[in-house]
Write a structure and sequence with these properties.
Elements lengths: L39 E8 L2 E8 L2 H6 L5 E7 L3 E9 L6 H23 L4 H18 L12 H9 L4 E9 L7 E9 L3 E5 L7 E5 L22 E7 L4 E5 L1 H7 L5 H9 L6 H8 L10 E8 L26 H5 L2 H9 L19 H11 L18 H22 L16
Antiparallel strand pairs: 1-2, 2-11, 3-4, 4-5, 5-6, 6-9, 7-8, 7-10, 10-11
Length: 430
């Protein structure tokens, strides 16, 4: 029996979605590039309401050429947040696997430290620090000789990028849910890796951020990697119970496309609930014609049984004490009655209309406060804006009628005798 016989094949032809294409043989090339770089990495984690699966696997093209896996991921569980980073080394750089691994590890450490200290992440600052960390790692390993240009960071970056560079995407998931869900901040720091989401109960993976523009006739594969200046793109979402968040390199993101093809629908069907770790690894290694790049995916499910906390109470406006109804007529003329009656009446009454000061009064702020508590009614035809000028005698008479109706309403309720006092119609205050 030869190694080409079906029983000895390193891959299972049945593990395909659509046309698997022809799988190349695996070559062994003597090189120090593969030292310390495994063909496949696999992790799984249960963290309260979160369930995580992570896998990074070498693509068939790199297996055939004898090149190392250039994808990498890193996960760090902080006190307040779960931090994930996924990196994809740029193939043109022979040591890009080092850049990817360095970037992923540095990102989760820096982001977790910022979350613990400040509660937020400054992604632009983090990108610069990670970029510098890649340069330092290249110099430490003597991958790029930059000692003579040590004072010029731009030249150091240029020389390092000739040897190694990487894309980078990260996510910070707050471990404590709110009434809105579990808050996630996704940052596409560099390159074309993408973030996807699947709503609980649905069968479609939709792109949240990142990825390639695949809608045109030609899809560009050029990226702006690290080290070097970048402009992180940040998106914030709220995961609900049953939802799935997926961070993936383009080796998986490209065949997923816009989430409407058979590849995406099949993975969505398989990942409706968290698969076992070995099953997840098999899904990442699934075959499809022309897609032979390294594949890396970190998936996080929110348990459907998670109960979100109640929304925080809303500070409602303080209504006037019903006892204020027994106040003086002067108080009634200054708008107090309107609010007091509103607090008692079970249904809207004319007294709910904002009552401005129609007689000489000194407390203009009180009138404004009363208007704010009663709502903005400046569009009402027969009202006067608090603190503003009367629109005419007819408006003032209408306001006085409102006050009188309020007094009559109160008298009907309490059976009290109310002295209306002198009319102020003759001396309107503007």
């Amino acid at each position: 029996m030869t190694t080409t016989d079906a029983g000895w094949s390193p891959f299972d032809p049945a593990n395909a979605i659509g046309d698997p294409g022809r799988q190349p043989e695996i070559r062994c090339v003597s090189s120090d590039l593969n030292v310390g770089t495994a063909d496949t990495a696999l992790d799984f984690l249960s963290l309260g309401a979160l369930e995580l699966r992570a896998c990074s696997t070498r693509g068939w093209s790199h297996r055939y050429k004898g090149n190392p896996r250039q994808d990498a991921y890193s996960i760090l569980v902080g006190e307040d947040a779960l931090v994930i980073a996924v990196a994809d080394g740029v193939s043109e750089g022979p040591h890009s696997h080092v850049a990817a691994d360095t970037a992923a590890r540095a990102t989760v450490k820096l982001a977790a430290a910022e979350m613990a200290k400040n509660g937020v992440v400054d992604w632009e600052l983090l990108a610069r620090r990670v970029s510098l960390r890649i340069v330092e790692e290249a110099e430490y390993r003597q991958i790029a000789s930059t000692s003579e240009h040590a004072a010029d960071i731009n030249e150091r970056v240029r020389l390092v990028r000739l040897k190694m560079s990487t894309t980078l995407i990260a996510a910070v998931l707050r471990r404590s849910p709110t009434h809105l869900g579990i808050q996630v901040e996704v940052s596409v720091i560099a390159g074309d890796s993408g973030a996807f989401r699947m709503l609980g109960g649905s069968e479609a993976l939709t792109q949240v951020s990142g990825g390639k523009e695949l809608g045109g006739l030609i899809s560009s594969t050029s990226v702006k990697p690290l080290p070097g200046p970048t402009s992180p793109e940040v998106a914030t979402i709220q995961l609900q119970p049953g939802d799935l968040l997926l961070l993936a390199t383009d080796g998986l993101g490209d065949p997923l496309g816009d989430g409407t093809n058979d590849f995406s629908r099949e993975l969505a069907l398989r990942w409706g609930t968290p698969p076992t770790a070995d099953r997840f690894m098999s899904d990442i290694n699934v075959y499809r014609r022309s897609f032979d790049d390294d594949r890396t995916a970190v998936a996080v499910w929110v348990r459907p049984e998670l109960v979100l906390p109640d929304s925080p109470p809303v500070d409602l406006p303080v209504e006037s004490d019903p006892a204020a109804i027994g106040g003086s007529v002067e108080q009634a003329d200054q708008g107090v009655v309107g609010n007091a009656v509103t607090s008692i009446a079970a249904k809207p009454t004319p007294a709910q209309v904002v009552v401005p000061a129609v007689a000489g009064g000194e407390d203009e702020d009180a009138d404004s406060d009363a208007g704010a508590r009663s709502g903005d009614l400046s569009d009402q035809p027969d009202s006067v804006s608090p603190g503003g000028s009367a629109k005419g005698t007819d408006d003032i008479v209408a306001v006085i009628d409102v006050v009188r109706e309020a007094r009559s309403f109160r008298q009907d309720i309490e059976g009290a005798e109310v002295n209306e006092g002198p009319s102020d119609a003759a001396n309107p205050t503007t």
